[in-house]
Amino acid sequence: MNTSKKKKTLYFVIVMIIITTITYLNHFNNSFHFDDIHTITQNPNIRSLKNIPVFFSDGTTFSSLPQNQSYRPIVSTSLALDYWLGNGYNMFYFHLTSFILFLLQGFLIFLFTYKILDISYPNPNNFYITAILTLWYMLHPVMAETINYIIARSDLQSTFFVLLAFVLYQYSNFSRKTYLYILPIILGALAKPTAVMFAPLFLFYTILFDQKISILKVFSLKNILTLIKKVTPIFVSCLLIYLFTDYMTPKTFSTGSTEVFRYLISQPFVILYYFGSLFLPIHLSADTDWILLENIWSYNFLIGFVFIIILLYIALITSKQKKYRPISFGILWFFISLAPTSSFIPLAEVMNDHRMFFPYVGLIISVGWSFLLLIKYVQKKYQLNKWYIITPIFILISVYAFGTYQRNEVWHNDENLWKDVTIKSPKNARGLMNYGITKMEKGDYDSAEVYFKKALIIKPYYPFLHINLGILYSSKGNKTIAEEYYKKATEYGVKYYSSWFYYGKFLWQENRNQESIEKLSKSLELSPNSIETRIILMENYLELEDWRNLNKIASSTLEIDRNNNRVQLFLLASIEKTSKLEAEEKRIANQPTATKYFNLSFKYYQKKQYSKSISIAEKAITLNSNYTEAYNNICSAYTILGDYNKAIEACNKALKLNPNYQLAKNNLKNAHNHKAKTEYQINLLKKDPTEANYLNLSLLYYNNKLFEKCIKIAEEGVLKHPNSDKLYNNICTSYNALKEWNKAFEAGKKGLAINPNNQLLRNNYNVTLKNIKN
């Protein structure tokens, strides 16, 4: 480029940056979606720059889901940098990185397109034509499907590096001689393997713009030999790069489908849709409801197949004349760049709008150049004023820009995105489910259930749908139905970690710790790097005070996410053998409030640690002497401990503060009743120390779970009634309750020696023996 063109190019780039930035101004705080969850928000590996070298040696670091773990170290590195720059999951920085790269790609598209047009049809207007084509690409709504979707940065990065390789080849003699232009392809393939499609693209670029011959003339011996010499290093390099990335891809990776034939025959119509979306991008959907075709005897297949034949024929014909070769090359670019996703490799979704990002580079050149040649012909024939051409072009680009702005709004949050999906793709079960989730998160359970049930009709065996139905019914308080859905989720999604995780989490919330550990362990087998699974497992081990397993999993988790403060606290608890409630007590001591202590007192009460519950409630009263509920807690705890006088005293204090406090009234009445019954039995025993009275008092203590008092009275009774097998039974069963198996064994043995036919004692004794053996 001469100095004048360089200045014009600089001015255009500034204008392009301004217009594109204005168009995308409303996207910088859009939320994470889809695969962003397992590759970014639930991926601990991107939270430290120290992991960057590991990204290049271990593909499992790309995602927390084994089936989605592929080798894309460039993507993971850029995400780690975003996390570091934003000091966490700050959406602005994640979007800023992608957007800057997008603007740089716009500059490369301009240089790439200008060179092609200049080779094919030298013309003073080529600069302006290139500017129009570049803006069309940059402002097209289809691009918003990639730019708004953070993890789709892999498409952005791989496309960027392919264009950089071409621009280096076009403009740098040094790069051509040293093959330096291959370096961007290596980087691109480390973002997404589709970058290796540079090889066939380079082949046709060489034919059309270096050798300057039509595709049909390639087949002369001289041209073939020249071509082989030129492109062999590129093909060999791309093959080696691909083999390397394939080798580095974890074996757990899955494309999501095995329907090769049905996927293949479905693609012609998909390609037609991609082509049509260039002109009318009105059906864009983040998650479509397209399904695979059953056979080739389908209208969709036939029309798509005919379309492909016609387009390839146009590519062949337009390669004959120099000025039409951008049309030919653009069509070939469109097909070649679609080959990885629209051919023999079956993917989970039949089509995806973000797959158009790479192909549209060529398609816009082809279609745009075709229209501009047609316009030039019409202008010349009818002597039209240039403003009759410029104005409609300006209006069209503005309409596309407005469409992009609207798509940014759709991608703003999950509710907007999934509502749009339910409208554009009403037969998509995942879309209905995800929109239902947004309703559930807002507490609109009835609406959520409606969408979940609609999705269930379409996809009855969808495990993630059953998970969310489980969450829904659990939130509504129907635990039985919730558990049924969780069980179905593990049945239909036995290979998915989420099925086991959410069932395990549910069981943990229900205090069914051992069952929870069993389910979560299966979840961890399927997804070893899942931090959320590890956290709930640690919660279970802490509840059970299983210090060895807690230490083991906390230590291994810190190897994955070394800066996780929560896990560090779990590790400390395992070392100091500090229970969950003790750890909470330490945290409260740093910033004490009466409410915090009261809540902790209630937790100790639920754990049946009544003495501790009393002492913590007393701390709450120290901070708030009028804390009625704390006095009530003390009353209830003392009643269970059998200290009825202190219980009555505490309840009286609660009722003095609030005479209408019904719970305290009930507890006071309960304490008086227990006191009266106990005093009656004690007085009766004092008057008449018969075996029956000893049995009745010890049984009263047992029923009130005062096992030590039960044992004490029964032992006193045995001294006076040494042949009482029934008193030995009370001693045995009380020691069983206290898990003091050896003492229970001695009591049971003595009682059975007196009366071997005491079946109740024998049953309790068998429980003792079973636990001694274990």
What this model shows, in words?
The N and C termini lie far apart (86 Å). The protein has helices spanning 3-23, 36-41, 52-55, 73-85, 91-120, 126-139, 141-147, 153-171, 173-178, 182-189, 198-210, 221-248, 260-277, 299-318, 325-338, 359-382, 387-410, 414-424, 429-441, 445-458, 463-475, 479-492, 497-509, 513-526, 531-544, 547-560, 565-576, 580-590, 594-606, 610-623, 628-641, 644-657, 662-687, 691-703, 707-720, 725-737, 741-754, 759-773. The protein folds into 4 domains: 3-404, no CATH class; 416-585, Alpha Horseshoe (Serine Threonine Protein Phosphatase 5, Tetratricopeptide repeat), CATH 1.25.40.10; 586-677, Alpha Horseshoe (Serine Threonine Protein Phosphatase 5, Tetratricopeptide repeat); 688-773, Alpha Horseshoe (Serine Threonine Protein Phosphatase 5, Tetratricopeptide repeat), CATH 1.25.40. It is mostly helical. Helix content is 73%, strand content 0%. Helix 5 (91-120) packs parallel to helix 8 and helix 36 (725-737) runs antiparallel to helix 37 (741-754). It is elongated.
